[in-house]
Amino acid sequence: MTGRPLALVVEDAPDQAALLRRYLDREGFDVFVARDAESAIAEFPEIDPALAVLDLLLPGISGQECARAVRERFPECFLVISSVLDAADYPPADAVLPKPITGSDLHAIVERARR
Predict the structure, then answer these.
(1) Residue 39 placed within a domain
(2) What are the tens digits of pLDDT across the range 67-104?
(3) In this predicted model, what pLDDT tens digit does every residue of 32-76 receive, in sequence order?
(4) Is 1 among the domain residues?
(5) Dihedral of the CA atoms 44, 33, 66, 58 (nearest 10)?
């Protein structure tokens, strides 16, 4: 155990997942990446994320459904929605991270999550 908080990333695009992993690692998180909502939900018994970054356009279970599942299972988790969709279409979340993602945008969200 590293003592670092865990960030859950649900992102099906490998380049975006790698970018989020790198940014979140720099911000002091251990990162668990799932390529789809089903994989993320299957790990719920084993993880306890402090922060979750979810894409909305996922294969299988939608990002909206995944966001509801994360909120239900981990009510204290800081939920971030990241998508190319219009932010008006995002489900309720603690923060939004429109794509393309930048390190400075993610840093600002992490700072909010830490408060």
Answers:
(1) yes
(2) 999 999 999 999 999 988 887 878 899 999 988 999 99
(3) 999 999 999 999 999 999 999 999 999 999 999 999 999 999 999
(4) no
(5) -150
C-alpha separations of 21 from 37, 49, 65, 89 in Å: 17, 14, 22, 25
Domain count, the chain: 1
Residue 76 lies in a domain: yes
Residue 36 belongs to a domain: yes
User: Does the structure show a pLDDT above 70 at 4?
Assistant: yes
Q: Which residues of 46-84 are buried (b: 16+ CB within 10 A; e: fewer)?
A: ebebbbbbbbbebeebbbbebbebbbeebeebbbbbbbe
Containing structural domain, residue 102: 6-114
Whichever domain contains 98, its CATH number is 3.40.50.2300
pTM of the model: 0.95
pLDDT at 2: 65
